[in-house]
## 1
Amino acid sequence: MATILDEEQAQAAPPVRMEISDGLAVIRLNDPARPVNVISEGLLREMGDLLDRLENGEGGVRAAVIISEKKGTWIAGADIEEFKNFQGPADAEAASRAGQELLNRIERLRIPVVAAIDGAALGGGLETALACTYRIATDSPKTKLGLPEVQLGIIPGAGGTARLPRLIGLRGALDLMLTGKQLDARRALKAGIVDEVVPAPILLEVAGRQAMALAARKLQPRAARPSGSPDRVENLLPMKRLIFSKARQGVMSKTHGLYPAPLRLLKVVERGIDKSVDEALDLEAKAFGELAVTPEARSLVHVFFTSTAAKNDPGLETPAKANPIDQVAIVGAGFMGAGIAATSAEAGIRVRLKDVKPEAAAKGLRTARESLAKRAKRKKMKRFQVTALTDRVQPTTEYTGFHASDIVVEAVFEDLDLKHRVIKEIEDAAGEGVVLGSNTSTIPITKLAEASARPDHVIGLHFFSPVEKMPLVEIITHAGTADWVTATAHGYAKKIGKTPIVVHDAPGFYVNRILSPYMAEAALLLQEGVRMEDIDRAMTDWGFPVGPITLYDEVGLDVAQKAGKIMAAAFSDRMGNPPTVVDRMVEDGRLGRKNGKGFYTFDGDGKKGGPDEAVYALIGNPSKKEMPKAEIQERLGLVMVNEAVRTLEEGVLRSARDGDVGAVFGIGFPPFRGGPFWFVDTEGAQSVLERLRALEARYGKRFAPAARLEEMARDKRRFFEDGDA
Ligand code: 3H9
């Protein structure tokens, strides 16, 4: 049985240990130096030594099991920290070949090896499992299997591109590798990646038994093909061509060709699938080597480390203890409230969802439950599990049940008087130790706290729409927010699977603050006569998921108008006259997608059509202006980057790290550019400064460079020092 080591023993223990008993070798992974098991240089060495012993037939071993003693992870992949040491493609290629070599040795052992997976088996972790003879995974919620390498700008480099399509077929393998999606054990079983699913407590026992059964040939492993797909139809040339051309089209429409890794992955698999595994591995290693040192990969690795660090750090000078969150109450059962309810329930939290009218509470409940049911279906949950999940959300029109809540989130209309009233009502109904979070996007938290009897409990919890999909939560502290409140809000955001950043109270907080001048600039371009589709295309070509004009329609023109006015008032000295386009649109009753009338046309089902030409008349028919794409990108990109730097210099942001995380996860700032601060480091502060000065000379003060940027350029400094993510 698996033994749990105490801390002292763990520190002294090597990352891999092997115990042999009755012909079964149990290889236990538990790297004492790391929070998760990773395939580091050290682990490769240790595993190599163990393989020497097994290859030499030590102790009459007939079968082996690889199991992890780390809670929550089996193997989290290659050590991403070590990627920072790659000086050039040769280093990265050598790392890939070292990983491949080790896994080849596991695959070629004369004895069967069973991967006993409890926790995450990602990237090189899953590749290790693929090199084993048989795979058993637990049904624990922490168990997830996937090849997320493209999200880091690379491709699987330890045999994944060769082994997975030979095991489960081209379409399944490409889908997993191109999206980086992670499967739970049941879905992995269905996909043919694992052979069995068991409860965690019996994992080792079952794995040992099956390993011995494989050795005795009482159990036949499902063998991958030496070349080609196991699905015969996929091996027919026209079918194969179709699969790859469709996959390529899918990648191009999603990435606009800005991410080299998925396109290279397709080439590697297409060329390698009919060759021997060794030849396919060779193609894989070369591609891995070249991709790992691209600027795109470096930026994506930066995004991984910054977002992980933000998740694990509430940004407090002195650490404070977070209260556990078992129950949350939400006031306001609109679209946002319902989304917060669903996301919380999915994380195992009980939810009270309150609205004034029974119909409103019922509608919110329906929205939350539908969202939960949809996700449960995707996870292939059993009926009773779905019921248990949806039953976690309870509607109410009274403040009943609030006293038992650990945190209350108000998500009522953006009206200060209403919010003040609601805060007082919550405080009357809830317990003394409750955290009072507000999902406001425009009202200063300091102002909200003025109505509170316990202002130190008040904090901003700014979710993004749709809550279920958007990964960021912006946590906003005012000067009097207690540290334990910040820690608790941060813990809550993390518990519901979000990436939080903690910022100080200021107009627009961080995310809307940097979005606002960008949106205003897009509206100014429109007034100058640049076509809306040209503006949108320029920015999606730069890497944003949608262009700013489309974004206006999505957020709602009335919402954008309100936010724009707040920002224009707060920064009137340098923002200049706000663009009038948005006012004209709202006056004309155009609110965007929500009422089917915006910059673009919408059909009866809400499907977006082309640009609505009538908009040009509405804004005074400016004469059509052809503007080079690069110029549009420069104006919009730099105005946002510059504003981000200002928020850091003003102390709204605690760190450049949070600024990058907020922009990437809240707005969709192109991840391959790493975020605004990483962008400045990549382009060079001096270059960004000069370009802003040129824009300022042409268009005025709104492009005046942030003082911090001037300092960085003068002192030749970077936001992230070499070696930082
Ligand atoms: C790869 O495998 C390439 C191969 O194909 C080829 C090789 C030749 N490396 O997220 P958490 C750290 S590419 C280094 O808070 P959780 C993380 O930074 C890899 N460090 O825990 C954090 O550090 P800190 C493909 C790693 O329980 C700490 O561990 N694999 C790695 O919420 C805890 O992390 C991936 O992309 C790593 N691979 O989630 C998987 N993984 O405490 C990346 C984690 O200093 N990892 N750390 O802030 C994850 O998705 C999650 O960390 C995981 C655990 C689900 C495993």
## 2
Amino acid sequence: MSTTDCIFCKIVAGEIPATKVVETENVIAFRDIAPKAPVHVLVASKTHVPNVAAAAREIPEVLAEMAVVAQQVADAECDGEYRLIFNTGAAAGQTVFHVHGHVMNGGALGWDA
Ligand code: 5GP
Ligand code: ZN
């Protein structure tokens, strides 16, 4: 399933470019266009679901695959240590409503909201 106006569905479909770092059957990882840490890679399902809880309900195997891919990215880029963030809802900073985790590290990560 995909939605025609979803930017990450367009990346999955190859309709807009992205710098891919890992791709599996069900998951794609690509560099954030506006990185907020030296390592800032987005790990997204190829299927469109709006957030992490929906992914857990509807495509749990793919959510698990996303976690494995996040680890692969971090193994390659930051010694396997990283923060994995799933923003949920606009008030929490979600701007793209297609499930994705932010794999971040490579600098001092703060915890300021
Ligand atoms: P959210 O705020 O929804 O948790 O994360 C969305 C992320 O997607 C943001 O960090 C933003 O910089 C990134 N982003 C938005 N549009 C694009 C795009 O077209 N390409 C890439 N690579 N990243 C994008
Ligand atoms: Zn989508």
